[in-house]
Amino acid sequence: MFAAERKRIIIKYLLENNKAEVVKISEMLNVSEVTIRRDFEKLENEGFLIRTHGGAILHNPSEKTYTKEPTVKAAEDEENNEIAETAMALVKENDVIMITSGNISRLLAKKLSAKNGLTILTNDLIVALNASAGGQNRVICLGGEIDQDNVSVTGTITLRNMQKYHVSRVFIEVDGISEKLELSVSSQQKAELIESAIESADHTTLLCNYTLFGTKAFMKLGSVTMVNSLITNPILSDKYKAAIYDKNVVLYTSINAFEGNV
Amino acid sequence: MNKKTILEIKNVNKSFKDEFALSNINLKLYSGDVHVIMGENGSGKSLLMKIIAGFFTVDSGEILYNGAVINHPTVNKAIKSGIYYQHQDLPVFENLSAAENIYFDYRISTKKMLKTWNALENISECTKLFKKLNINLSPIKNMSHYGFAERQLLFAAKAFISDAKVVIFDEPTAGMSEVERNIFFDILALIKQKAEAILYISHRLDEITKVGDVLSVMEHGRLISTNDIRNATKQDIIRLITGKRKIHQFPKISIKPNSECVLSVKNMTSDSILKDVSFNLHKQEILGITGLMGSGRSRLANCLFGIKQTNSGSIFVSGKKHLFMHPLDALLAGISLIPDDRQANGIFYPLNMRNNMTLPNLKRFLNNSILDDNILRLVVNDYVKKLGITPDDSDNGIQFFSGGNQQKILLARCFMKRSSIYIMDEPTRGIDIASKIDIYNAMNNLIVKGASVILISSDIDEIIGMCDRILILADGRITAELLQKEATKEKIYSLAIND
Asked: What Rg value do the Cα atoms of chain B yield, rounded?
């Protein structure tokens, strides 16, 4: 059972019964009591319930208006998070990789901080900070002109700087993938940076949320065949999945259905 | 050589809703030839044969028989015009005798006008026939007494009396012993003298060199090559089968090899199908098992899941010895099986998708011994979303889902069980490409989250693409073990043929 699902069920249960016992909920959901206690703790922080001995009670029973439904934003975060998780599984110990800027890349960098022995090259300042957080990885930040909007560096200096390196894998993100599987990005600088990044890597992996399919951005980058593999969400339509296969691009979908063995 | 063309297939296309299809098939069958057709399971061999025999009509293209177009024949017309098709799974009358089964379509009647059944004459005729063909079986015993191999022999006798011009055999020797195969080949030689041409589907290389004149190789609904093999060596044929093809890459995630052994099989023997099989499965590993038809692949899966009993040998799960008398024992030990024939062994047809997915997992949704339907629906919807099952309404009857989605529903059922070992027997056979990709990624999900997978498949590309380690089965024995990086298609074929 997934955390979000569990939360929804616990909320529903509490709204109906006003109180809940850890043992009962854990039996009902077939997860350990520790997990339920942790869920209760989270919900307490959100002010929804108050923990008691062996259970929890609804914080304000008269006010049954807890409507913190997952918003569109939250759903997208979850989707991106799953993509980042799949990307992380592709990174092996002692790899030398590059990560360019983007939302999923930043999530990936955060996850990679838990690994050790990696060498990570990046032009994105947040990626650099996230990836170096654990102190176990070597993180190299490229130089160049600061792009305030994207919190990253771009321009000729960055490109020249990048050419000095060689990495085994680069993770890139784009801003649109057309129906004909043409990649596009929002600016010329970004296009140049990605082209140069692909050149200095053995293997290119594109990270993209499934909602990007069927959209176009300002600058054309080229066909999807310029990348070796692509990671997206499993809800992507079958039509796109088959088309990507036909182009001989390896398609990873961020399936996260298995709840672990018991 | 100027030989007569008996049967010609021109630009034939055939597609089903979303299952595999035939695209642009061109084939010529010359008189006097035994034309062998090879290809992996699901490549469309049987479908092509069934189209020739009138079971299906083509979407486009032509079938010329003796120069005349026979595009939309029925089975009866095909039989009358002299095409005999011997099924892989024979349609027999279990409660009739062997003689009655053989002479069913060619009955001997007392009077020409009244076609009544003359049992005595029939049996004496059949005894004569058996003597001639060297078949040592009783014509009066019921068909239910006979096993797969014997039935194939009996139907070969039927092919002999049919006087057909074109005889089609669909893997007749798959379950036969050496003795039975020799009898079969003698019958085949006699049929070759009578009939104009024979189409022969087989997986066995030694047979192909022995009886074949021409070899066509099929792959994913296409006919990729046709060659004369009268003077070809085994190595030549292996090269023809494996060929040079566009190699698709697989979404493989390798986890660093973990030395922890989750499943250990020692000296397992089952009837005469599995002989002394031993192997280990490590944590977070995808172990591939491949072999030809009849090599014991599926029997191995069935033994590991308690469907079939073993005669000797032992199974250890996480170091603890287990005896599986029933699938429940295996499930309790943390083993799940996705069976190869999902129609027969996986799906409950009258039920809807939600029930199909949750049936073995209902215990999980109990709330004071009452089923909590709300939670059940929530969990099902979650799985539907996470595995990309379409349509996403769980009230839909299972029959409204495509093959690929049905397979994903079975996968969800096993995922919900939260086992630690997943055995997948031909999980991608006959399903669309998008669902295949999802299933490969679901396997990755399993191993990333700490489970282990045994992938049993006849698709060698898939085996090489997805497995960390590959075991090759031939005639019930493990003949080789390869690591992913050292495996090639040619290598696996030569090892699987094992001669």
From this structure: 25
Residue with tokens 């170091």: B319
Q: Where are the beta strands (DSSP E) in A111-207?
A: 119-122, 138-141, 145-147, 152-154, 167-172, 176-177, 182-185, 201-207
User: Cα(A137)–Cα(A161) distance, rounded to whole angstroms?
Assistant: 20
**Alpha carbon distance A152, A105 (integer Å):** 12
Contact A2 B438 (CB under 8 A): no
The complex's ipTM?
0.78
Q: What is the pLDDT of residue A35?
A: 86
Mutate: best of B375, B415, B466, partner A, most A CBs <10 A: B375
Q: Does residue B382 contact residue B375 with C-beta atoms inside 8 Å?
A: no
Answer whether residue A66 shows pLDDT above 80: no
pLDDT tier for residue B263 given thresholds of 50, 70 and 90: very high
Average pLDDT over chain B, rounded to an integer: 87
pLDDT for the residue numbered B267: 94
- Contacts of residue B272, defined as CB under 8 A and 6 or more positions apart, other chains included, come to B476
Using the predicted structure, report yes or no on whether residue A23 has a pLDDT greater than 50: yes
Higher pLDDT, residue A134 or B63: B63
A113 contacts A141 by C-beta, under 8 angstroms: no
The confidence score (pLDDT) of residue B482 equals: 94
Q: Identity (one letter) of the amino acid at B10?
A: K
Considering only CB atoms, which residues of chain B are within 8 Å of chain A? 246, 248-251, 253-256, 334, 364, 367, 372, 374-375, 378-379, 382-383, 385-388, 390, 412, 415-416, 418-420, 432-435, 437-438, 441-442, 444-446, 448-451
Strand order in the sheet with B312-317: B274-282, B261-270, B312-317, B320-322
Distance, CA of B198 to CA of B192 (rounded, Å): 7
State the DSSP code for B256: P
In 3-state terms, what secondary structure has residue B85?
strand
Q: Tell me how far apart the alpha carbons of residues B328 and B305 are, in angstroms, rounded to a whole number.
A: 8
Which has more confidence, B205 or B325? B325
Buried b (16+ CB within 10 A) or exposed e, B163-196: ebbbbbbbbbbbbbeeebbebbeebbebbbeebb
- List Cβ neighbours of B157 (8 Å cut-off, separation of 6 or more): B102, B129, B130, B133, B135, B187
CB neighbour list of residue B89: distance below 8 Å, 6 or more residues apart: none
Instruction: Give the pLDDT score at B287.
Output: 96
| pLDDT attached to residue B413 | 95
Q: Name the 3-class secondary structure at B422.
A: strand
Q: Where are the beta strands (DSSP E) in B15-144?
A: 22-30, 34-39, 60-65, 68-69, 83-86
Is B445's CB within 8 Å of A241's CB? no
User: How many CA atoms are closer than 13 Å to the CA of B401, on its beta-carbon side?
Assistant: 34
Phi then psi dihedrals of residue B14, to 5 deg = -155, 130
Instruction: Find the helix or strand (DSSP H, E) in which B468 lies.
Output: none
